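User: For my dataset I need records formatted as: sequence, then structure tokens, nothing else. Please produce one.
Assistant:
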Amino acid sequence: MAVEIKPVPLDIPEGCNVIVGQTHFIKTVEDLYEIISTTVPSAKFGIAFTEASGPCLIRTEGNDDQLVDICVKNLQAVGAGHVFCIILKNAFPINVLTQIKLCPEVCGIYCATANPVEVIVAETPLGKGIMGVIDGFSPRGVETPQDKAHRKEFLRKIGYKL
């Protein structure tokens, strides 16, 4: 059996983050909507989920139509079933990731990032599946004392450390 493997770049708008994961049930989009809207009420977001049986539709929710559309386009490009894509604005994945992982339908998370992402997709005669993701760039070196000071300053600047 032949397996074709290809990278699929995701569209992540400037100032946004993406969360990509695997899930298994039609009510996922509604549950993810409730998780995000109750955890970070000021967040703008789109959600799309690909069914892998029945009508095999891309199900959508969100409070920003443009972000919903981007999620749909990302999942159309990936083409795998039982995958969800969330695009977040005015929130970070760290704000919602624990609650998303606790959602009973969520099987796992591939990435949660603002970096450029390529989804590695395998295709067989049955369909497509995600093998993994490439999240950002390769390391360029090891943190220096100046880099460490910059990291600590940055975390305090954005309010994640005292």
